[in-house]
């Protein structure tokens, strides 16, 4: 998730409104689950196994305090070996640390760790754990938790970390004014983690989404600085719908062609679309795309900064965002093909609106869940909090003073690993695919600027539908769901893989888990193409 700064005001205001209107009153009394409902969902669970002590790969005297025996409302059969809790930055001082969930691969053991960060800035990586690439999935509109058959835990050891300090349960005051500081703290945490779990000589992969498009390259870069392949053998990185380049401006630049192509799902009227087309020209956006969207690029893009106060008529992305809610109150900037109803969300945040069914509190804010996960019971957990960057300004006004990663740290990570994947969901309206592509075309890595050829090779997804297979069978439609086919476009040059993902918004592992599974197979070196 990536929120424009001004959205925090809206968020706080809507939270206050929710509280004032008493919507929270029955939250603490009910969980929304009857014993019969739990029995039903156990009966429906198709996968899962218990992990006897002997099968636990990482269970020792040092780790047992983090071991998760069971989770409220999650059938025991869903549980595999899993650890969570807080590990401090400095083991002799617990005032600052990171809350993590570690889940070893379900399947043959591997000597590798994949780290996942959500964005915001200020949003918890437990979103990824619970709704994107984790094994236990309780996502938008799901009445009860399920096993996610496309979990990355099928492939690798996963480590979700609430980042930077101040997010979720990670203790300490938010002090970051740039990307370097939290990355340095992460390095300390990760050393401690490896000591506690007796891990060394693992391959390390750093992944994330949205604002983590900044975290991932800076954390990976800090790992390279360690000169320590025993603990920091960085082997690849992946970012989804990333905040790289001049991302706010790139959204303004790219939004009109997006509307032109996808207005069938947004429903703007003809005169509004024409007004956007006019201003797309008047503001110089059409011309800019013509000049700079080239393969290979024929120039460096000039620095861009959109001053929306001085130039409100050219603030096209924010205007589209505001107007979309009128046409469709269930407008979801992260997945704009959704219509009403607004989906219930066990994490309380199914679009930019704060919502769940009454009686379904944010899962990680429940006292029983906090206890089960070794989280501090006195910390109020919210999916997104902030601000977690506390400087004034920064290149994109997020209180984060670090340079755009494209200008140094990301090229270095590509050159060091030759295995970096940048991907965007074609339907994402939060970070537009062509904005991300413009950003890549302004980056120089492994000796050249940008991609030399336009992406054109299809991504063909042959993984069958495992999740709903049985429902298709029992509905008499067995087999119709077996094959997805062409689900995107890939392109590889000089260590960088690009993937556009069709039929996906912002949270790709949530919306196109099979494509994401494929991305991970590539990242981990199990295949050479997508
Ligand atoms: C684990 O702790 C127990 C109890 O303190 C002790 O008896 C045992 O030797 C320890 N095991 C190891 C491998 O250190
Ligand atoms: C870790 O914390 C201890 C206790 O507060 C302090 O003495 C020590 O200097 C800290 N270490 C580092 C590297 O900051
Ligand atoms: C993931 O593992 C489960 C077993 O735990 C299996 O049922 C499922 O098919 C696997 N998914 C994929 C995509 O291979
Ligand atoms: C966080 O900041 C508050 C007020 O600024 C202060 O009272 C508190 O001690 C700080 N907490 C830590 C862990 O530094
Ligand atoms: C740590 O792992 C090594 C093998 O990687 C093993 O030999 C050693 O016994 C382990 N130590 C503990 C305390 O589990
Ligand atoms: C890593 O190596 C570089 C170049 O040799 C050196 O400048 C840097 O200080 C080293 N870093 C650490 C943490 O030792
Ligand atoms: C580091 O990982 C690479 C794969 O990314 C592997 O080829 C290499 O052997 C590893 N190095 C060490 C020292 O483990
Ligand atoms: C993205 O850019 C490509 C190449 O310029 C163009 O063909 C395509 O229509 C654009 N798509 C959108 C959704 O803007
Ligand atoms: C790049 O080349 C195209 C023609 O291939 C041209 O239209 C455009 O003006 C050029 N852009 C720059 C910045 O030179
Ligand atoms: C393109 O890259 C140059 C050089 O790194 C940088 O100065 C400029 O700000 C970038 N342009 C955009 C639009 O990000
Ligand atoms: C944006 O424009 C307003 C009004 O013209 C001006 O006061 C402000 O300084 C500008 N902000 C920046 C960062 O240039
Ligand atoms: C989390 O729980 C606390 C205490 O029960 C409550 O005050 C707070 O409003 C809850 N937060 C959310 C986002 O529901």
Automatic annotation (TrEMBL):
Superkingdom classification of source: Eukaryota
Keyword ATP-binding: no
Stretches of the chain forming a coiled coil according to its record: none
InterPro entries: AB_hydrolase_fold, Peptidase_S10, Ser_caboxypep_his_AS, Ser_caboxypep_ser_AS
Key words, A-Z: Carboxypeptidase, Glycoprotein, Hydrolase, Protease, Signal
EC number: 3.4.16.-
Top enzyme class: hydrolase
Signal sequence residues: 1-22
Gene Ontology biological process: proteolysis
Entry GO MF terms: serine-type carboxypeptidase activity
Alphabetical list of PROSITE patterns matching this protein: CARBOXYPEPT_SER_HIS (PS00560), CARBOXYPEPT_SER_SER (PS00131)
Hydrolase is among the record's keywords: yes
Family: Belongs to the peptidase S10 family.
This protein's name: Carboxypeptidase
Species: Capronia coronata CBS 617.96
């Amino acid at each position: 998730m990536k929120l424009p700064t001004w959205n925090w005001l809206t968020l706080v205001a809507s939270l206050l409104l929710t509280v004032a209107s008493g919507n929270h009153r029955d939250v603490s009394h009910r969980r929304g689950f009857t014993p019969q409902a739990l029995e039903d969902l156990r009966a429906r669970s198709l996968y899962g196994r218990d992990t006897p002590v002997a099968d636990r790969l990482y269970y020792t005297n040092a780790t047992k305090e983090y071991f998760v025996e069971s989770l409220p409302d999650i059938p025991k059969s869903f549980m595999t070996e899993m650890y969570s809790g807080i590990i401090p930055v400095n083991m002799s001082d617990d005032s600052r640390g990171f809350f993590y969930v570690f889940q070893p691969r379900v399947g043959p053991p591997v000597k590798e760790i994949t780290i996942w960060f959500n964005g915001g800035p200020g949003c918890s990586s437990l979103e990824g754990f619970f709704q994107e690439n984790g094994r236990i999935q309780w996502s938008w509109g799901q009445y009860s938790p399920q096993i996610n058959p496309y979990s990355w835990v099928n492939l690798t050891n996963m480590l979700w970390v609430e980042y930077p300090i101040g997010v979720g349960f990670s203790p300490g005051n938010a002090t970051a004014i740039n990307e370097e500081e939290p990355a340095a703290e992460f390095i300390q945490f990760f050393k401690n983690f490896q000591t506690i779990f007796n891990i060394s000589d693992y391959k390390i992969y750093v992944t994330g989404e949205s604002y983590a498009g900044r975290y991932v390259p800076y954390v990976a870069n800090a790992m390279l600085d360690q000169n320590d392949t025993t603990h920091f053998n960085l082997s690849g990185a992946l970012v989804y719908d990333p905040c790289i380049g001049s991302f706010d401006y790139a959204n303004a630049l790219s939004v009109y062609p997006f509307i032109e192509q996808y207005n069938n799902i947004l429903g703007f009227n003809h005169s509004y679309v024409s007004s956007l087309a006019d201003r797309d020209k008047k503001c110089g956006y059409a011309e800019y795309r013509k000049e700079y969207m080239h393969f290979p690029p024929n120039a460096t893009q000039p620095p861009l900064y959109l001053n929306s106060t001085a130039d409100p008529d050219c603030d096209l992305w924010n205007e589209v965002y505001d107007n979309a809610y009128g046409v469709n109150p269930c407008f979801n900037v992260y997945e704009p093909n959704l219509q009403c109803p607004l989906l219930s969300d066990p994490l309380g945040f199914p679009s930019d609106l704060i919502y769940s069914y009454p009686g379904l509190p944010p899962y990680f804010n429940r006292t029983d869940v906090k206890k089960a996960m070794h989280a501090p019971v006195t910390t109020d957990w919210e999916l997104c909090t902030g601000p977690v960057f506390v400087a004034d300004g920064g290149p994109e006004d997020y209180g984060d003073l670090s340079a755009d990663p494209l200008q140094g740290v990301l090229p270095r990570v590509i050159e060091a690993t030759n295995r970096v994947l940048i991907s965007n969901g074609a339907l994402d309206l939060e970070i537009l695919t062509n904005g991300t592509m413009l950003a890549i075309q302004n980056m120089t890595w492994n000796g050249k600027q940008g991609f030399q050829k336009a992406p054109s090779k299809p991504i063909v997804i042959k993984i069958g539908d495992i999740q709903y297979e049985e429902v298709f069978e029992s509905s008499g439609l067995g087999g119709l769901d077996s094959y997805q086919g062409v689900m995107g476009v890939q392109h590889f040059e000089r260590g960088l893989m690009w993937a556009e993902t069709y039929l996906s918004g912002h949270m790709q592992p949530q919306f196109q888990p099979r494509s994401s599974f494929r991305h991970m197979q590539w990242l981990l070196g199990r295949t050479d193409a997508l």
